UniProtKB/TrEMBL annotation:
This is Cell division control protein 73 C-terminal domain-containing protein. Gene3D superfamilies: RNA polymerase II accessory factor, Cdc73 C-terminal domain. It comes from Rotaria magnacalcarata. It is found in: Nucleus. GO terms for biological process: positive regulation of transcription elongation by RNA polymerase II; transcription elongation by RNA polymerase II. Residues 1-33 are annotated as: Disordered. One of its GO terms (cellular component) is Cdc73/Paf1 complex.
Protein backbone atom coordinates (compact mmCIF):
# COMPACT_ATOMS: atom_id res chain seq x y z
CA UNK A 1 0.00 0.00 0.00
CA UNK A 2 1.35 3.42 -0.97
CA UNK A 3 0.27 6.73 0.51
CA UNK A 4 0.22 10.26 -0.93
CA UNK A 5 -1.48 13.26 0.52
CA UNK A 6 -3.19 15.85 -1.69
CA UNK A 7 -1.89 18.64 0.55
CA UNK A 8 1.62 17.25 0.69
CA UNK A 9 2.69 15.29 -2.44
CA UNK A 10 5.64 13.77 -0.58
CA UNK A 11 3.24 11.85 1.69
CA UNK A 12 1.96 8.73 -0.09
CA UNK A 13 -1.79 8.21 -0.47
CA UNK A 14 -3.37 4.76 0.14
CA UNK A 15 -3.91 2.62 -2.94
CA UNK A 16 -6.78 0.21 -2.43
CA UNK A 17 -7.12 -2.80 -4.68
CA UNK A 18 -10.46 -4.01 -6.04
CA UNK A 19 -10.27 -6.99 -3.67
CA UNK A 20 -9.79 -4.68 -0.68
CA UNK A 21 -12.85 -2.67 -1.78
CA UNK A 22 -14.89 -5.86 -2.04
CA UNK A 23 -13.74 -7.07 1.35
CA UNK A 24 -14.47 -3.81 3.14
CA UNK A 25 -17.65 -2.71 1.40
CA UNK A 26 -19.70 -5.86 1.86
CA UNK A 27 -20.18 -8.32 4.65
CA UNK A 28 -22.01 -11.62 4.54
CA UNK A 29 -25.11 -10.06 6.09
CA UNK A 30 -25.24 -7.21 3.55
CA UNK A 31 -24.78 -9.31 0.39
CA UNK A 32 -27.62 -9.26 -2.07
CA UNK A 33 -29.25 -12.68 -2.40
CA UNK A 34 -28.27 -14.66 -5.46
CA UNK A 35 -30.70 -14.62 -8.37
CA UNK A 36 -29.26 -17.79 -9.95
CA UNK A 37 -31.92 -20.52 -10.19
CA UNK A 38 -31.17 -23.94 -8.69
CA UNK A 39 -32.03 -27.25 -10.36
CA UNK A 40 -31.84 -30.48 -8.34
CA UNK A 41 -30.78 -33.69 -10.08
CA UNK A 42 -30.65 -37.22 -8.64
CA UNK A 43 -27.43 -38.37 -6.98
CA UNK A 44 -28.11 -41.92 -8.21
CA UNK A 45 -26.04 -42.81 -11.26
CA UNK A 46 -28.95 -44.93 -12.55
CA UNK A 47 -30.85 -41.76 -13.51
CA UNK A 48 -30.67 -40.60 -17.13
CA UNK A 49 -29.50 -37.20 -15.82
CA UNK A 50 -26.53 -37.16 -13.44
CA UNK A 51 -23.68 -34.85 -12.50
CA UNK A 52 -21.63 -36.49 -15.27
CA UNK A 53 -23.97 -35.56 -18.14
CA UNK A 54 -26.12 -32.64 -16.94
CA UNK A 55 -23.97 -30.00 -18.68
CA UNK A 56 -24.26 -31.72 -22.07
CA UNK A 57 -27.95 -32.42 -21.56
CA UNK A 58 -29.01 -28.96 -20.39
CA UNK A 59 -26.46 -26.74 -22.19
CA UNK A 60 -26.07 -28.59 -25.49
CA UNK A 61 -29.51 -30.31 -25.50
CA UNK A 62 -27.70 -33.56 -26.22
CA UNK A 63 -27.94 -36.80 -24.27
CA UNK A 64 -24.66 -38.37 -23.18
CA UNK A 65 -24.68 -41.46 -20.97
CA UNK A 66 -23.24 -41.26 -17.47
CA UNK A 67 -20.54 -43.73 -18.51
CA UNK A 68 -19.55 -41.53 -21.47
CA UNK A 69 -19.48 -38.50 -19.18
CA UNK A 70 -17.27 -40.29 -16.66
CA UNK A 71 -14.97 -41.57 -19.41
CA UNK A 72 -14.43 -38.02 -20.68
CA UNK A 73 -12.45 -37.41 -17.48
CA UNK A 74 -14.28 -34.22 -16.56
CA UNK A 75 -14.28 -33.76 -12.78
CA UNK A 76 -17.70 -32.82 -11.49
CA UNK A 77 -17.31 -32.28 -7.76
CA UNK A 78 -19.69 -30.07 -5.79
CA UNK A 79 -22.36 -28.02 -7.49
CA UNK A 80 -22.20 -27.47 -11.24
CA UNK A 81 -22.85 -24.19 -13.04
CA UNK A 82 -24.34 -24.48 -16.49
CA UNK A 83 -24.60 -21.68 -19.02
CA UNK A 84 -27.83 -21.62 -20.94
CA UNK A 85 -27.80 -19.68 -24.19
CA UNK A 86 -31.06 -17.77 -24.55
CA UNK A 87 -31.05 -15.51 -27.58
CA UNK A 88 -28.12 -13.11 -27.13
CA UNK A 89 -27.97 -13.81 -23.39
CA UNK A 90 -26.17 -16.43 -21.35
CA UNK A 91 -27.99 -17.35 -18.15
CA UNK A 92 -26.39 -19.30 -15.30
CA UNK A 93 -28.13 -22.14 -13.48
CA UNK A 94 -26.77 -23.96 -10.44
CA UNK A 95 -27.14 -27.75 -10.57
CA UNK A 96 -26.90 -29.81 -7.37
CA UNK A 97 -27.39 -33.45 -6.48
CA UNK A 98 -27.15 -32.70 -2.74
CA UNK A 99 -30.40 -30.92 -1.80
CA UNK A 100 -29.79 -31.34 1.94
CA UNK A 101 -27.05 -28.66 1.69
CA UNK A 102 -29.53 -26.03 0.49
CA UNK A 103 -30.63 -23.29 2.86
CA UNK A 104 -34.25 -22.45 3.65
CA UNK A 105 -33.78 -19.25 1.61
CA UNK A 106 -32.59 -21.34 -1.36
CA UNK A 107 -35.72 -23.49 -1.14
CA UNK A 108 -38.06 -20.51 -0.87
CA UNK A 109 -36.47 -18.28 -3.50
CA UNK A 110 -34.14 -20.16 -5.85
CA UNK A 111 -34.99 -23.86 -6.24
CA UNK A 112 -37.02 -24.01 -9.43
CA UNK A 113 -36.82 -27.61 -10.66
CA UNK A 114 -36.16 -31.17 -9.60
CA UNK A 115 -35.50 -34.19 -11.75
CA UNK A 116 -37.33 -36.95 -9.92
CA UNK A 117 -36.94 -40.69 -9.95
CA UNK A 118 -39.63 -43.12 -8.82
CA UNK A 119 -38.96 -43.78 -5.11
CA UNK A 120 -40.56 -41.37 -2.64
CA UNK A 121 -37.65 -41.79 -0.19
CA UNK A 122 -35.50 -39.54 -2.40
CA UNK A 123 -37.35 -36.58 -0.84
CA UNK A 124 -36.47 -37.52 2.77
CA UNK A 125 -35.22 -34.46 4.64
CA UNK A 126 -36.71 -32.02 2.11
CA UNK A 127 -39.01 -29.15 3.10
CA UNK A 128 -42.76 -29.71 3.03
CA UNK A 129 -42.27 -32.91 5.06
CA UNK A 130 -40.62 -34.51 2.04
CA UNK A 131 -44.06 -35.17 0.58
CA UNK A 132 -43.65 -35.35 -3.23
CA UNK A 133 -47.16 -34.01 -3.85
CA UNK A 134 -46.40 -30.88 -1.79
CA UNK A 135 -42.86 -30.56 -3.16
CA UNK A 136 -44.17 -30.58 -6.73
CA UNK A 137 -46.66 -27.82 -5.92
CA UNK A 138 -43.71 -25.56 -5.04
CA UNK A 139 -41.05 -26.78 -7.49
CA UNK A 140 -41.43 -27.84 -11.13
CA UNK A 141 -40.77 -31.59 -11.41
CA UNK A 142 -39.31 -33.46 -14.37
CA UNK A 143 -38.47 -37.05 -15.18
CA UNK A 144 -36.27 -38.20 -18.07
CA UNK A 145 -36.88 -41.71 -19.35
CA UNK A 146 -36.45 -43.83 -22.43
CA UNK A 147 -39.64 -43.74 -24.50
CA UNK A 148 -39.48 -47.52 -24.93
CA UNK A 149 -39.70 -48.18 -21.17
CA UNK A 150 -42.78 -48.11 -18.97
CA UNK A 151 -43.24 -45.01 -16.80
CA UNK A 152 -42.64 -45.64 -13.10
CA UNK A 153 -45.94 -45.88 -11.16
CA UNK A 154 -45.07 -43.03 -8.78
CA UNK A 155 -43.93 -40.75 -11.60
CA UNK A 156 -47.19 -41.48 -13.43
CA UNK A 157 -49.31 -40.39 -10.45
CA UNK A 158 -47.25 -37.34 -9.48
CA UNK A 159 -47.43 -33.96 -11.22
CA UNK A 160 -44.24 -34.51 -13.23
CA UNK A 161 -43.31 -33.27 -16.71
CA UNK A 162 -42.06 -36.28 -18.69
CA UNK A 163 -39.15 -35.95 -21.10
CA UNK A 164 -39.00 -39.08 -23.21
CA UNK A 165 -35.87 -39.78 -25.21
CA UNK A 166 -36.01 -42.35 -27.99
CA UNK A 167 -33.07 -44.75 -28.15
CA UNK A 168 -33.69 -45.25 -31.87
CA UNK A 169 -34.34 -41.60 -32.83
CA UNK A 170 -31.53 -39.69 -31.15
CA UNK A 171 -31.95 -36.77 -33.56
CA UNK A 172 -35.11 -35.88 -31.59
CA UNK A 173 -33.19 -35.37 -28.32
CA UNK A 174 -32.73 -31.63 -28.84
CA UNK A 175 -36.43 -30.91 -29.41
CA UNK A 176 -37.50 -33.08 -26.48
CA UNK A 177 -34.98 -31.59 -24.06
CA UNK A 178 -35.97 -28.08 -25.21
CA UNK A 179 -39.46 -28.76 -23.76
CA UNK A 180 -37.74 -28.71 -20.35
CA UNK A 181 -36.53 -25.14 -20.86
CA UNK A 182 -39.87 -23.98 -22.31
CA UNK A 183 -41.86 -25.26 -19.34
CA UNK A 184 -39.25 -24.10 -16.81
CA UNK A 185 -39.32 -20.55 -18.25
CA UNK A 186 -43.10 -20.50 -17.77
CA UNK A 187 -42.78 -21.80 -14.20
CA UNK A 188 -40.13 -19.23 -13.23
CA UNK A 189 -42.06 -16.35 -14.82
CA UNK A 190 -45.10 -17.27 -12.74
CA UNK A 191 -43.51 -18.41 -9.47
CA UNK A 192 -39.98 -16.95 -9.19
CA UNK A 193 -39.98 -13.82 -11.40
CA UNK A 194 -37.12 -12.14 -9.50
CA UNK A 195 -34.63 -14.81 -10.62
CA UNK A 196 -32.51 -14.57 -13.76
CA UNK A 197 -33.87 -16.86 -16.46
Amino acid sequence: IQFKSAANPSIPKPIISANDKLNTSTTDSSKRPSRTPIIIIPAALTSLITRYNCKELLEDLKYLSTEEGKASGTKRDGDILIQRKKGNLTVLYRITDDPLRLTSQDWEERVVAVFAQGPAWQFKGWPWSGNPVEVFQKIKAYHIKWAQLKTDANIAKWCVHLIELDQNKRHLDCARIRTFWDSLDQFIAKNRPTLRY
